Amino acid sequence: MEPLRLSATWPSTRAGVSRRLVLQSSALALAGWLGPVANVLARRAERISGHEPAQSVILLWLAGGPSQLETFDPHAGAKIAGDTRAIATVVPGIQLAEGFVRLAEEMQSVSLVRSLVSKEGDHERGTYLAKTGYRPDPTIVHPSIGAICCHQLPGGQTEIPRHVSILPNQWPARGGFLGNQYDAFKTFDPARAVPDVTAPVSAVRQAARLADQRVVEEAFALGRRQPIGTARHSAMIDEARAMMTSPQLKAFEVGDEPAALRAEYGDTPFGRGCLAARRLIEQGVRCVEVTLAGWDSHVNNHETHRRLIEILDPALAALLKDLRQRDLLDRTVVLCGGEFGRTPAINRLDGRDHWPHGFSMALAGGGIRGGQVIGATDPEGGRKVEDPRSVADIHATVLTALGIDPAHKEVSPIGRPIQFSEGAPIAALLQEPLS
Amino acid sequence: MWARNLLFVAVCIGGTALLLPLLVPQPEGAAKREVARPADVSQASDFQVSVAVVNAAFRRQWLAQGIEPAERGTDHTIARRMSLALAGTIPSLQELRRFEAQPAEVRLANWLDDLLADRRSSDFVAERLARAFVGVQDGPFLIYRRRRFVSWLADELQANRPYDQIVRRLIAEEGLWTDHPATNFITVTVKPDSDEGPDANVLAARVSRAFLGVRLDCAECHDHPFRSWKQSDFQSLAAFFGQTRQTFTGIRDRDGEFEVESTTTGESRAVAPAVPFAVELLPPSGERRERLASWITHPKNDALARVTVNRAWAILFGRPIVEPVDDIPRDEELPEVLRLLADDFVAHGFDWRRLLAVIASTEAFQLESRHPSADAENVTLWRRIDAAWAVFPITRLRPEQVVGSVLQSASLKTIDHQSHILVRFARAIGQREFVERYGDAGEEEFLPQGGTIPQRLLLMNGDLMREKTKDSLLGNAASQIATLAPDDKTAVEVAYLCCLTRRPTAEESAHFQARLQETGDANRRERLGDLYWSLINSTEFSWNH
């Protein structure tokens, strides 16, 4: 285990910058003679020179599997809609399901992929697929998109965790084979204090505790200096202490924001989470995942969605608007979706069941072209999907927007090279609009 | 109201009467072991022979390489290792007192036998094995019961069922996942919400890793890049599960061919079951899974024994002989110790408990984790000594071991299956919450993992640490020690025993006695809590050594 990577989602003044520089410069150097690879690399270099790639990702995770029909892919009037209506948006021709009144006004920045198909109709497996871009594989654990960001992009001056999961459910984003140092730091409703970052005793006692810990360390070190050096236990305590005293921790404290802005995001844990996400991005955090759970509407689908959309709509719309007003939207990819969609047919309990055969995700920011719709599902509720896309394509698109080559292969600890994403970037979302 | 207060005082006095003997050891009476078991493994006649063979092999290797091994560890150090590896926790003060009261020449052997017979060990080791057998995922709802599976496995280990019989049942068992828990090995591979049955490819990958010690699975899609496995080897192995179906009466085998689709032409063709090596050991006829089970558990097929020994070694040392634990190249020479132990394991009827006992009794297991070369500049020499098992490896404790140790250190008495139901319940809850935040090491828990800053934050400031270092006479050992210890020296010593399973050095003792002296009586319990914090946040606490 090389020491450079040990604190990878954390401030690193050593590892990140040089790795990226090497990657980029070698990409340019090799571009001349590497054949097909050269194309990809050259395009990436061009992109970097013409348009600064995105720096961060915010994933609004709709845990449980939201219904495409009640969110981003309404089929108003069709039998499968089950009387769910649609509303117009500021982009002519694009409709959202009723309830997304605020998002409708931001639609020029948002694109919808309506033709996602997968083979994973189980929450755990679908979540794994959505967060890593790979189907679960008993032989390897793939890194989530946030872990890849932290692994690939420089650490800069960030003293707080660079990969954060707000309100996580049981499957938060993890580092997979890149290592547990890329796991997301888990925190809850920003109205509550960030867990584990405050010493439970007075400063005087804390100082004495730490001084005493050094006494114990010294006794143990004799005859073990090399392995202890590799272990970096005390060094990590120092890094943890640096975080505990970092002014950047204030980013979690959304109470500092004006009341009007907080109201725009919504007075909900999820709304506060989205606001915290923006504040964290400003501090250089690479990936924030904010979870809104409860979409598993086997019973009372419409009512469940109506209630959750009241939370999601203001938070998502306010986030996009807020990012734009602060000139952060161009450097932040916002991705919103869940592990699968829900059946076109409504069951006897007025619910919809799991449906991975045609569902939607929304993307915005980070240079992603807005106001686009990719693919379409069958208004009759069949499995025919126009322009089908895989979850891996979404990953490839997001990684490309971040200036990370999806085809890059990282070698797992057992020596198996694994591509960051096996999907194809969705070209229509990455093209610059003609102006 | 006063009656309740009185009751509280009575409880405290009663509790104190029970705890006091632990703080101040009583020499007589305690020396007897609680249960005598005639079947103790380490008492068997040929046991020492098995241990001596391994010791001699290491001695030869060290001599040939010109390596001076580390000194023998102290009995306390070795006892700590055994407890962490088998029960997933450090020893309690209660256990240590009993240990110290026994004659020096038998106490470690007794310690090991007690641990191997302890239900905590069966549970803890079953979880380690389950990670290799079925992974850590929740798996398909209703038809997969992971907890049922693990508790069945723990029962089998507790009964010391021969390991080959356990493996046979995993592979070949029929019936429902509830009353035939071994079938969960099969049902975990069913894709939820699909009409497909158990996934033969996933099963082939599991079997090859867990029972053959080869990572055949990258041959699922193509020939192995650097070993001799072909894609056809993988498909033929999968074909043994090609007739396995999930039915109303559970897992059954039906007629029909196992078909694979060509990745190039897309055409399907039937693949017959076949094994990748030692083909002469495969029974020519019979039900497919039965044939595979017979081949894997055949005493002349060394694959199962070698991967199992490698795993047992990893459980005890925190690091396998061959890394990764389930990929032992068949075309390279096997490390001598692995071969010797594998032969011994087969010769003794796949006796899993005996295997653990042999490894834990070897000289290598009992060496110090200190070595003079570790303090020198020469990195290469140190690495050579470390690689030759001439010093006990220092490895990061896994989350369950860390939380198990924190909880145990905060209780003077052993937390085990005899503990009060509320104590066990609190332990289970505390453990689950802690592991969730610390980050479960997952299926490949024996791969070296980097530590994380959230882990350090959790151990410095987390809820559990707050709870266990605060002043609480009923709940916390620190407070009890502060109140009950007759003097400062004893208080410091007992805290060290509780947290680090050793006594303080002279410097440590002097340092912390001075700390206690500068503390007023009113803050004494608080100060002991601080001492606990410092001990638990040391490298020594969080690492196996």
Q: Care to describe what's here?
A:
The complex is a heterodimer of chains A (435) and B (545). Chain A is α/β, with parallel strands linked by helices and 435 residues long. Chain A has 13 helices and 16 strands. Chain A has helices at residues 15-31, 36-50, 101-105, 123-132, 145-152, 203-221, 225-231, 233-244, 259-265, 269-282, 301-325, 391-401, 427-430; strands at residues 56-63, 86-88, 95-97, 110-116, 163-166, 185-187, 287-293, 332-337, 341-342, 354-355, 359-364, 373-374, 376-377, 385-386, 409-411, 417-419. Chain A has an 8-stranded mixed beta sheet, with helices on both faces. Chain A has a two-stranded antiparallel sheet with strand order 2-3. A two-stranded antiparallel sheet of chain A has the order 9-10. In chain A, a hairpin with a 7-residue loop joins β13 and β14 (385-386). The longest helix of chain A is centred in the last third of the chain and has 25 residues, at 301-325. Chain B has helices at 2-23, 47-65, 75-86, 93-100, 104-117, 119-133, 146-158, 163-172, 184-187, 200-210, 231-238, 288-296, 303-317, 336-347, 352-361, 363-366, 379-387, 399-409, 421-438, 453-461, 463-469, 477-484, 488-500, 506-517, 524-536, 539-542; strands at residues 244-247, 250-253, 258-261, 268-271, 395-396, 543-544. In chain B, the strands form 3 sheets. Chain B has a two-stranded antiparallel sheet. A two-stranded antiparallel sheet of chain B has the order 3-4. A two-stranded antiparallel sheet of chain B has the order 5-6. Chain B is 53% helix and 4% strand. With 545 residues, chain B is mostly helical. Chain B starts with a helix and ends with a strand. The model of chain B has no long low-confidence stretch (mean pLDDT 90). In chain B, a hairpin with a 6-residue loop joins β3 and β4. At the A-B interface, α6, α7 and α8 of A face α10, α17, α20, α21 and α24 of B.
